[in-house]
Amino acid sequence: MQHKQLLQLLTQLGWVKETASAYLAPDGAQATLYLEPGDEALIIDRVSRIDVGDDTAVVTTHRRERYGVGLDAIAAVRVVSDK
To answer: Would the pLDDT of 37 be above 80?
Structure first.
């Protein structure tokens, strides 16, 4: 996914822009990030924050796990309401 596409997608899905490059998951929602870095998909559940750089992103989960990923590996972002 390209930088501009990811920023537009996060905004459309209700992510809150905290700083110029940091987005917070919507309150009352579960967020999941789907990555396709190669032949197999990687799923990161309970995403709470995404810091977007030019070519990379740092993904933080509710358990404070941090993942560095390439933007080109991001295939999809899922947001499901807890309500």
So the answer is: no
